[in-house]
Amino acid sequence: MPKKLKKPDLKRIRITDELFGQYAGRIGEKILDYQWKILTDELEGSEPTYCIENFRIAAGEKQGERKGVVFQDTDLYKWLESVAFSIAGGMAGDFEEKADRVIELIAKAQESDGYLNTYFQINAPERKWKNLAEGHELYTAGHMMEAAAAYYVITGKEKILEVAKKNADLICRVFGKGEGQVHGYPGHEEVEVGLIKLYRVTGEKKYLEQARYFIDERGTEPNYLRQEIERNGQPEFFPEFKNYDLEYSQSHKPPREQSEAVGHAVRDMYMCSAMADLAEEYEDKELETACVRIWNNMTKRRMYITGGIGSSGFRERFTTDYDLPNASGYCETCASIGLMMFGQRMASLTGKASYYDEVERALYNTVLAGINIEGNRYFYVNPLEVVPEFCTEHTAMQHVKAVRQKWFSVACCPPNIARTLASLGQYIYALGEDALYIHQFISSTISTSIGSAEIVLEMNSDLLDTGRVDIKAAVSGKETSLMIRIPGFSESGNVRVDESELDVKVSDGYIRLELSEGTHSIELKFDTAPKWFAANNNVREDAGKMALMKGPLVYCLEEEDNGDHLSEIYVEQSTEVKAEKPDERLAGKLPVLKYKGYRVKSVGVENNELYGEVKFRKEETELRAVPYSQWNNRSDGEMLVWQKAVV
Amino acid sequence: MPKKLKKPDLKRIRITDELFGQYAGRIGEKILDYQWKILTDELEGSEPTYCIENFRIAAGEKQGERKGVVFQDTDLYKWLESVAFSIAGGMAGDFEEKADRVIELIAKAQESDGYLNTYFQINAPERKWKNLAEGHELYTAGHMMEAAAAYYVITGKEKILEVAKKNADLICRVFGKGEGQVHGYPGHEEVEVGLIKLYRVTGEKKYLEQARYFIDERGTEPNYLRQEIERNGQPEFFPEFKNYDLEYSQSHKPPREQSEAVGHAVRDMYMCSAMADLAEEYEDKELETACVRIWNNMTKRRMYITGGIGSSGFRERFTTDYDLPNASGYCETCASIGLMMFGQRMASLTGKASYYDEVERALYNTVLAGINIEGNRYFYVNPLEVVPEFCTEHTAMQHVKAVRQKWFSVACCPPNIARTLASLGQYIYALGEDALYIHQFISSTISTSIGSAEIVLEMNSDLLDTGRVDIKAAVSGKETSLMIRIPGFSESGNVRVDESELDVKVSDGYIRLELSEGTHSIELKFDTAPKWFAANNNVREDAGKMALMKGPLVYCLEEEDNGDHLSEIYVEQSTEVKAEKPDERLAGKLPVLKYKGYRVKSVGVENNELYGEVKFRKEETELRAVPYSQWNNRSDGEMLVWQKAVV
C-alpha cells in the first residue's frame, strides 16, 4: 500500500457538521476578531499582550521596550495561520486584508539578513542565538514558517513566504555541523515542522536537510544545551529552569534512540511530528521505529482516556508510566493538538489507520474542551476531575482553572485551537495516490482530484448519535477508490454501497471501496452504543472506576446535572445507559446519557467533625452525563470522568 | 478548675514503655551519636552539613566561608536540647561532656553584643536583621533559647543560659515599638516560644514582653515584611520566595484576628504555641479565642487522620478546608511536632483534656513514623498512601520519599523528633496545683511533689493491646489527686481504684481521683477495640473509604504483608478485625490486625493496553495491617491507610 498521504486542499473542503461546524463557524465570526483584539491590546479588561506593538517597535514605527513573554510573536503567527485556513474555508471576512497589512509589518520588522524576533531585536540583540534552551527563537521561527506556508498555499500571496524563506536561509547558514556554524538546536522544538512545511511548499531541499540536522544533532554528546546552560550560568527568562534537566526538552539523548514520551509534552509532540515527517521523506526506518516506540509508550502508558497528555503540573510534562492523576493532571490543550499532529503523520508514514483512533480521541475530547461554545474562553489545563474549591493556590491543583479563562499570559493554547479547528479538513481527508482517504466522520464536502479522477463527495455523519454515516460520491474522468478508516471504538458495523451490503475486509484499519465513474451512495453504520471503560490495573488512580464513552466521546458528570460531591457517586458495572435528547445549551446536538447510579454518603461523621464512625448510606439516583468537551459551558461547578464502580 | 499546668521534672521520669522505650532508648544509644557525626561531618557517605565547622569559623578557630543552609545552626541547638533531655532521662552517656564542649564553642562564637548566627556573622555581617522574611535569624535564636533553657534546667550549668540571655537581651534592644528599634518580627516564628521558655526559667519579664511584642506586631499595617521584601527586591536565600505571600508566614493579619490554620504549617504551629503561652501568662481571652478558632479549623478541616498537617507539597503548607490528598500530601514530621506543642499548651490554657486526643494522634502516628526503629533513618514527608514508582521527579508526589532517608539538606525533622522523644515525659504528665495530671498512657515512672504531697507513681500500660493501664501510686506528706485524661477514642471504659469499681465522672475530659496518703492501685480499662473510621463527606479524597484504628494507632496496609497494587483492595464495612500477635520485626510488640478483604482487579483490559472493557474480578483475600508509624521498617514498597469500602 502506498503510504505517503498528501493533505487535501482546504479551499475545496467545507465543514457542515453539527458539532464541529458550530465551533469552526465561530472562527471567522468571532475567534479571529477576538484574538485580533488581544494581539492589538484592544480587548477591554484584558491584560495587554504587546504582541503587535512589539512588531511596530521592531519595524521602527514606534519607540519603546519590547514587552510580553519571550515567545509572544508566535501568537500572531498562529493567528495568521488561522486566518489562512479561514480564507480557505471561506469564512475569513475582512481578516485577509488585516492579515495582509500585518504581513507588511512583519516584513518591515525583519532584519536585512533575515533575522526576525521582536524580543531579541529590540531588547537583546547581543543575545541572538545565545540562549537556545530558553529563548524560543527557533520555536518562534517555526511558527512563522508554518503560518507562511499556509498563507502562501491558500492565498498564493508570496510576501510572507519570502519573509519565511529569508529567515529559514539565515537559520540554515547559522546552524549546522560546519565550521563557524552553531552546532545547536532548539530548546523547544517546532522549527523542524516549520522547515519541513517550507520545503514541501518551495521544494527547497536544504530546508528539509536543516530539519534533519536539528533532529540528528539533538541530544548528541558533547551536549550542546548542557554546555550552553553552563556557559550562561543563571536562567535568563524562566527562573524555574535553574535545574534544567535535558529530558525536559528531549535532549538527553538523540531522538532516534528515544523510546519513551518524556519531558515537556508539547515539545515532545512537536519533535515527534518532525521525526515522523523526516522518516517519511527519507524513508528512514530507524527514525520510524523510534516514532513507533514513543507513540506506543505514550498511548499505552501515559495518556488519559480523553487524549490528554502530560500528567504533571510541574512544567507541563510527562512523568512516569501509569501516573495519571485525574484531579491534578495537566493535559495541556496544546499537547493534545501536538498528539493529533504526530498521529496524523504516523498514519501517513505507516499506512495504518489506527493512529487516527487517538487523534480522534484527542480532538473530540481534550482539544474541543479547550474552548467554550462561544469561542471566547479557553482551558489551558484539562483535568478529568474538578472540585472548584480545591483548585486554589498551593493545592496540588493550583495550576487548574475550574472555569475557562479569557486569555493567558502564556497564550499558546487559544490560537493553537483556532488554527486546528480552522484546518479540520486535513484530519478528515487525505489524498493517496489512487484513493481518497476518510479518517474522521465529520459532516463535510470535498471535491478533489485523485490522479486523473475527479471526485465530489458529501459526507453526512450522525456518528455521535446513531453511528450512521452517509456518503455520496460523484466520480468522473476515471474510476477511483475510497479508503475508509474503521474506527477502533466500533466493534461491529456494516457498509452498504449503492444499496448492497458489502462484505467488509479491513486491512490496516481501512476498508477500500472501488468506485466506478458515476454517483455512488455509501452507508456506514458503526457501533456507537455507550460503553463503560476501565483502565489498566497499573493506573492506581482509576482502580475500581469506570469511564463512559459513546463512540469517540468521553462523557462526564457535571454538578449542573447531578449536584455537587460527585465523589460520592457509584455505578453498577452492568448499568444500562440510555441516550436521550440533547441539552440545547450544549453544542452539536449531542445526546445526553442517562443511567441509574448511587450516592454513597458517609452519615456517621458529624457535620463539624473530620473523622467518625463508618456508616455509609447508599441511595439510588438518576445520573446524567454530557460529553467531556462540553463541560463548564452551562455553569461552573464540579466535573468527574472516572466514576466508582459498585464491586 | 485551675488551668495552669506545669511541666514535670524530666529527671524524675523514666520511660519504661515497650513502644516508646524502644525509640527513647535509641536516643542516648544511637541517635545522639549519629546526629553528632552528622553535625561534625564525620558520617561516612553523608553530605557534609558544615554545622560545627561554621561555629569554629565564627569562633575564630578556623578560617573559611560559612556553608550549609542559612538556618543550619539550629541542628546543633536541637541536638543540644536532646542531650539535655537525655541527661534528664539518664541516658546521655558521654554526650554531656561533648555538649559542654560545644557550648564553649557556641559562647566563643557569640559576638560581644550578644549576636549569634554563624551565617550572618561570617558571610554577611552587613545583612544582620535585614532579611527577616528569609534569614531565619530569630528562628535560629529561638531554638538556641529552647536548648539553653532545657540544658540549664536539667544540668544547672549556666554557661549556655548566659549565651541565650545575652542574645535575648540584644533582641529586646533591637526589636520593638520604640524609636530606633526595628518594628519587625520573624518570617519563621520560633523565637517567641524560646523567649517564653527563657522567661519561665529566669523570671525575666522582658523576655515575655518581647514575645508578646512579636505576636502583637505581626501582620499589623503598614506590614513590616511586605515593606522589607519590597526593599530587598530579589530573594536572597530561597528563589521560590519570589512571590512571597504574607499568608505563608501568617503575617497577612494580626494573629489574634486569625481564624484558620494557614501558610507554612510548622511556622503556624510555632506561632500558635506562643499565642497559647501568652494567652495563659497574660490571661488574654482574645488571644485564647483566636487559638481555639485556629485549632478547631485545623483539627476539624485540615488534619489527616494520622495527625499530619500541611496538605501541600508546595512550600509545606496548609491549603484549604478538606483538601487532604493521601498520596501527594505533605504532613511534615516537624509540623506534627508543632501540633503536639500547640495542643499541650491549649490543654493547659483551657483545662480541657481533649486537646491531648490530637497530640496523641500526632505522636503515635506521624511523629513516630518520622523515624525508623533503628533511629538512623527519617521521613520528612508523611503521606497516607505510597506507590514508590510514582514518587519520582515531576509527579505530584515528587516531594515524597518512599523510603526513610539518612539525613536531609534541610534537616529540621530528625533533631526535632529526637528532642520530642527525649522529652516525652512532658506529654505524659503535667503538674497542677493540687493534682498530678496523666495525659498519655505510656509506661513510665514519675516521682514528684504536688504542693506538700509527694507522689511516686508507676504506670504500666497495655493500652495499645488490651486497653488496660495499671497505675501504682504511693502518696505521702498529704493527700493529693490524680487527674486522668479519658481518651477520646475510648467509648466505654472503667476505673477501679484499690479494687473497687469507680463511678466515673468525666469533667473536661478528666476523671479526678482523690488519693489519701499511702499506696493505691488504680486499674483503667479503655476501649481499644479496632474500629473503622470514615471521613467527612467534604474530604472528596476519602469518599467511600475507611481507615482502621486501634486506640490511638492508625493502621495501614503494607506491600510486605499484602502484595502490591493496594489500590485494588476493598473491605466490607462490617468486616471483623482480629488482633493477632505482633510482628517481631516491628517496634513495641504492637498487635497486627487481620481481616478479610477483597482484591478487585480489572481483567477486561489487556496487559499492554491502557483502557478496555469493564470487567472487575473480585476475589477474597486476607489482609494484615500494621501501625502506620511502623511502615517501611521491614521492606520498601507500597503503603495505604484509607481503604475502599464495599458499598
Strand order across the largest sheet of chain A: 1-5-6-7-12-9-10
Helix content of chain A: 25-40%
Characterize the overall form of chain A.
globular
Gap between N and C termini of chain A: 47 Å
- Provide the number of structural domains of chain A: 3
What Rg of chain A is obtained from the alpha carbons, in whole angstroms? Answer: 25 Å
SS class of chain A? alpha+beta
Average of pLDDT of chain A: 95
Share of residues in strands of chain A: 15-25%
SSE blueprint:
The structure is a homodimer of 647-residue chains.
Chain A: E1 13-15, H1 18-39, H2 51-58, H3 73-88, H4 95-109, H5 118-122, H6 137-155, H7 159-174, H8 191-202, H9 205-217, H10 224-232, H11 265-281, H12 285-301, H13 333-350, H14 355-369, E2 385-386, H15 413-422, H16 425-428, E3 429-431, E4 435-438, E5 444-450, E6 453-462, E7 468-476, E8 480-485, E9 493-497, E10 500-501, E11 510-515, E12 518-526, E13 531-535, E14 545-550, E15 553-558, H17 559-562, E16 569-572, E17 578-580, E18 592-602, E19 611-613, E20 616-627, E21 639-640, E22 643-646
Parallel strand pairs in A: 4-8, 16-22
Antiparallel strand pairs in A: 1-5, 2-21, 3-4, 5-6, 6-7, 7-12, 8-11, 9-10, 9-12, 13-14, 14-15, 14-22, 15-20, 15-21, 16-18, 17-18, 18-20
